[in-house]
Amino acid sequence: MPEAPASPPPAANAIPAPAATATPSLQAIALNKEYGSVHAVQNLNFSVARGEIVGFLGPNGAGKSTTMRIFAGLLGATSGRAYVAGIPVARYPDEAKRHLGYMPEHNPLPEDMRVHEYLNFRARLKEIPRRKIKSRVEVVLEMCGLQHKTRRKLIGTLSKGYRQRVGIADAILAEPEVILMDEPTIGLDPHQIISIRRLIDSLRGRLTTVLISSHILPEIEMCCDRVMIINQGRLVASGTSKSLRRELITRAEWRVRLNGNVAAFEKLLPEVNAGLRLSACSPADSDGFCEIRLEGPADQASLGENLLTVAMKRGDWLVREFAPIEPGLEEIFLAATKTGSDTLAPFSLNRK
Amino acid sequence: MRHFPLLLAHELRMLAVSVATYSAAVLFLLVMGLFYFLVLYYFDTELRNDPPAAQYFQIFWIPVFFVVPLLTMKSLAEERRHGTLEALLTTPASSLEIVLAKYFAAYFFYLALWALTLLFPLIAVKYLPIARADSPLLDTASLAGGFLFVAFSGLLYIALGIFASSLTRNTLVAGMLSFSMLFVLIISGNLLPHLPLQDTWFAHLIPTIDYLKTFQHLEDFSHGVVDTRPFFLYASNTLLVLGVTTLVVEARATA
Question: How many domains does chain B fold into?
Answer without folding.
Answer: 1
